[in-house]
Specification:
The structure is a homodimer.
Chain A lengths: L1 E4 L4 H13 L4 E4 L12 H6 L7 E4 L2 E4 L1 H11 L10 H15 L3 H4 L1 H11 L3 H25 L14 H15 L8 H11 L2 H6 L9
Parallel strand pairs in A: 1-2
Antiparallel strand pairs in A: 1-3, 3-4
Chain lengths: ~210, ~210
């Protein structure tokens, strides 16, 4: 397997966590999203992945973008330890938490989005950060309410073992800190993050541990 | 089952298509996203769904947001006809197509986002529409390239039966038209949309057919 990654990408970070939890060691290829205007826009990379994003997985004949699709694929092809519960309601809940971060928060903090705000709306750094902080704060506030009140929440987002939901939560809180949002304001999320960070898999997947880290 | 919906919501539309394909008739409850500042922000609705979004599904004890999680849940609990292929690579491909729309395009055209652009950046209607058109066009261009070249594309996004990917594609092309993007510029996507629209399930799920349509 070959995984295209960038150390600071939230989406690539999710897949790295899943790989580490499952003991998978794909060959890593690094796509620098900032240098030279962004290597993801190169003709070579676009020919491989028309979306021009990371992560991107090659496994045999399969060419696969989208972090949640990649994690589900890894979970189906390497089932142990499972990253989704066995019951349909539990699986639904884990996917819902993952999507609340991957579809409702992360797309709005994406580099391409803040670059558009700068170029087309003349938004300076303070206003771009206010934008990102707004979406992170509203998304995390809703998720905190949900996780704090639902009995299915355990040591991790769902029960007492890490799932796809935790693979999304930890990178989102990493991004929150980058933009000045303190996860301590979301006590359930912060508690779960601490449980995750106690696991070596989460440590090894972190941006600072990557060969392409700066 | 109870489904909270709004006729024009792309995400609710996805779930309505899945329900129609499976012959499910959940009790519909209507959440008007515009009137009175948006009923999704009401205390009553937020108490039910802290995210304040549609769709939202109640099935027994389960309270479930996020359209893709809902469709996967319906597919697991009502397996016929299947909305995901049986092989892991096929499932991954379908999820990847669905997410390319649900995570990379739709979040940026969302009402809450264009409202923020208006209030915080003073973006007039023309600039808000240019924003939406930019994200729809770039997302559909990448997806057109992918679907046009991959042999797994058939009469529908994946093979010759509708899947989760088609449940996302049709609402996205509906939204594209609303914002003045002509799907004819994406011939593979337009061809698949036509195949979908020939099925009664897609017709019945359309915004214009909903009891809350205006």
């Amino acid at each position: 397997m070959i995984l295209y990654t960038y150390f600071r990408s939230s989406a690539a970070y999710r897949v790295r966590i899943a790989c580490e939890l499952k003991g998978l060691q794909p060959e890593l290829r690094f796509v620098h999203l900032v240098k030279g205007g962004g290597h993801q826009h190169s003709l070579e990379y676009r020919a491989l992945n028309p979306q021009g994003r990371v992560p991107f997985l090659i496994d045999g004949d399969l060419r696969l973008g989208q972090s949640l699709a990649i994690v589900e694929y890894l979970d189906e092809t390497h089932p142990e330890p499972p990253l989704l519960p066995r019951d349909a309601a539990g699986r639904a809940r884990v996917r819902s938490i993952a999507l609340a971060l991957a579809a409702d928060v992360q797309p709005l903090q994406n580099l391409s989005v803040t670059q558009y705000l700068e170029k087309q709306f003349g938004a300076d750094q303070a206003r771009r950060e206010a934008w990102v902080v707004h979406w992170i704060t509203s998304g995390l506030t809703a998720l905190e309410t949900t996780l704090a009140r639902e009995p299915a929440t355990g040591r991790f987002c769902h029960g007492d073992a890490p799932t796809l939901a935790d693979c999304c939560l930890v990178p989102q809180l990493f991004a929150a800190r980058r933009f000045g949002v303190d996860p301590a304001g979301f006590p359930t999320l912060a508690r779960i993050e601490a449980a995750c960070q106690a696991l070596p898999a989460f440590f090894r997947a972190a941006p600072a541990q990557q060969p392409d880290a700066e």
